[in-house]
C-alpha cells in the first residue's frame, strides 16, 4: 500500500473516534443508550481506555511527558512537545488558546529566539522530558510573563557516566547533515554536562511576487520569482557543572557558545533581474551562574557577548533603475542579567513570593551602504549606540482552601529605560482553580505582558535585500502591551475547552506596503492601535484498541486589527479564522516497536493587518523503530508532504500584491541515535538572542 493511501485510510478510521469524543456529553433521550453503555458494548479492539496524560493545577495544565511519549514516540524533545493536546506549532512557534507560548527550561527563562530554540530542542532526546507545564499566564517567579511552557527534565542519578550519539541526514532540494554528541557525568554531589553539535548543509527557499504597483503615473504590473540558496556551517557547544552542598542548596555554572557561518545567494530573472550575495557570521559567548539557598532564595548572574557581522552585494536593476550597491553591517551586544527570588511556605496553605531582576544592555548597531562607485548611500546608512536598562520587582501570594479552591495572584512593577524611552508599567496576574469533582476542573486566569522590538528593527536605515524588497527600520517603535483572560474547563481528563480574549494595544508587526513613487515593496515594523483576539478552543484525546492513539484540536478566533498610522491608508479589519490539527499514532508492528505518526494541520484564511493569509493545509508523517534494549533508534520522516506554500495578499485600498512563500519543500529525513548507559540529557539554561540580528 502506498504511504499516502495508508495515511488517508488512518484518517478515515479515526473519524468515528473524533465523533465519539466530541459528542460524549450530548444529552440523550430516556430510551436511548448512554455513551458509557455504548463504550462497554464496543469491542476492545475499537475503544480502550487510557491513563490520563495531564492534570490541572492552579494556573497550569501539567502533562506527563513519559506517558505522552508512550502514546506518541518521538525522536527528540521538539517533536514530543508538538504532540501535546491543544498545542499547535508553526514556523518554530508553539500556540495554545490564541496565545504564542514561550518555552522555559526547568523554571528558567529560555533566552534563545524561537528558531534557535527549535533547532536546539530537535537535538534533545524526547526521553529527557519529565513533564511540561502549560500556563496561559505565568506567575512572575518564573522570570517571564505571558503564556509559557515550562519544560521539566527527568530526575538525575548519581555515580554514573552516560551519553548519546546522534546523526541526522535530511534532503529537500539540497541535503544537510547533523552530528551531535552529549556526555553526562554524576558522582556524589558533583555533576558535569557537555554537549557539542555540528550542522553542515544547504537550504533552499523561494518567493514569488505578483503585483500591480500603484504608481502616480498609473498602475504597472510586476512579477518576479526569487530563488535563495543558503549554506550553513554551525558549531554549538555547551558545558555545565553543578555542586549540591545539601538538599535545596546548590551552585551551578554554565557556558554556552555558538559559531555560525552563512553564505547565501538570491537571484531573479523576470521583471527584476538581480543577483544578491551575502556572507554572515554569528558569534555567541555566554556565562551563567546560579546559587540556590535552602531558605528558598535563588540568586542568578549572567553575562552575554553577541556579535553579528554581515556583508552583502546586490547587482541588478528594476524598471530601468540601477539598484546595484554593497552593504556592510555589524551588531555587537553586551548584556548583564541579575535576579533574586524568594518563596516562603506558610501555615494554612498560604505561600508568598517576591523578587527583583535587573538587565543592563549595551548595544552598537551600524550599517554602511555604498554605490558601485563607492559613494555612501545615506538612506541605507546609520549607526546606533545606546544602553538599555530593564528593572522590575514583584510580589505575590498563593492560597488553597482544601482540595477544592486555590488562587495565585501577583503584581510586577517594571521600568524600561533607554535614551529615548523611560516607561513604567504594572503587570498584574491572577489564577483561580475550582475543582468541582474529579471529572470537572475550572481555571480562570488573567495576565499581562509586554513585547519589545528587536534592536535591529529600530535603526533609521533601509536594507535593500533585493531590487524590489526594502526592509526599513523604525526608530519610533514602542513596546507593545498585552492583556489576556482565559477560562478553561477540563472534563473527564480527556477533554479541554477554553474561551479566551487577548488585547494588545500598540501591537507591532511587519506589514508590506507598495509606495507610489517607485517600484518597491517596503517591509517595516509599525505599531498598530491594537490587535484584539477572541476565541474558543476544544481538544480531545482518544484511544482505539492498543494500537491507535490520538488527539484532535479545533480553535476558532475572531481577529480585529486596527492601525491609524499605516502610511496613507489606515485600516480597521476583522475576520474569523479556524485552526484544526491532530496527532495520530499507530503501532504497525508491536513486536518490533515500529510506530507510524501522522500529523495533519489546516488553517483557514486569516489576516495580519492589511494582509490576507490564505488557507493552508500541511501533513507530516514519520516511521520509527526502537531496539528492544532502547539503545538504538532509527526514524524516517517526511515534513510538508503536501508541499504547501504560505500565500499572502494585500489588496487594501490601492495595494495589489501577492506573495507565495515556499520556505521549506517536501523534506525527507533519516535519523540514527545510539544511547549508552541510562542517558537523559538535562536542559540547559539558554541565552537571550531574541532581539538580535536581522
Fraction of helical residues = under 10%
Cα separation of the termini: 46 Å
Mean pLDDT: 84
Total DSSP E strands: 40
- Please count the helical segments: 5
Q: Please indicate the percent range of residues in DSSP E strands (runs of 2 or more).
A: over 45%
Largest sheet: 28 strands, antiparallel
Q: What would you note in describing this structure?
A:
The structure is a single chain. This protein is mainly beta and 694 residues long. Helices cover 7% and strands 63% of the residues. The protein has 5 helices and 40 strands. It has a 28-stranded antiparallel sheet that branches. Strands 1, 2, 3, 4, 5, 6, 7 and 8 form an 8-stranded mixed sheet that branches. Mean pLDDT is 84; it is low at 1-49 and 679-684.
